[in-house]
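User: What would this chain look like folded?
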Amino acid sequence: MKRWILPLVLGLVLLFPGLGCTRESPRLRGLPARMLWAWESPQDLRFLKHGEGVAFLVGELHLEGAEVRWVGRRNPLHVNPNTTLMAVLRVETRQAALNSAQALALAERALNALSLPQVAGLQIDFDAKDSERAFYAEALKVLRSRMPALIPLSITALASWCLDDHWLSEAGLSGVVDEAVPMLFRMGPEDRTVRLRLGRGERLSEPLARWSSGLSTDEPLLRLRGSQRTYVFHPGPWTEAAWTRMTRELP
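Assistant: Here's the prediction, encoded as structure tokens.
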């Protein structure tokens, strides 16, 4: 693609957010189709040999009252020099004030991760309650406004956000967030209902959630029509055997 075309496409997406709903965001096209989530445990992923990417927990941002507390990753992560990385920031709240200073702190912590070697994108993991949604949307807009134009911004999304609840699009996040990854595991009481609906071929109604899916090695897999990218969680440290078993089941 010629150099001037991609900035033009991105500009159109930002000016007309609806464009981001019908096609995968151009920012995502440099990411691998298979991404392994590497959570808070020692992870040695040097066995990856087929261009897979790694979305690794870089740290947790705890919003408690009006305070902000950062807990950085505590365990080692080993990857090959050519592995594409996505830095994942987890957000936890406890009677949080959800003020502008905390929104700015979220943005700054995420931006700091872009300076780490091999990091090509950001992902925010926040199970925002109804009362936290306005804050979350504003924090994401602050973050996007300060990110380099070509760097993708991903978020994880509860399955309920992607079926009947349209709050992500209604909050004006199309063109701000490049993808909302529906977490199709650990779904709690709604697990059976979601699996039945998606098993019948029902499509997720949230446009931001149509291009990716989040699965886990220890639960039955749900496959989404049109999904371009799969994120896979594994409880505890990944092993080559666990990934090999998973690859046999992935599209």
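The chain has eight helices and eleven strands. If you want, I can go into more detail on any region.
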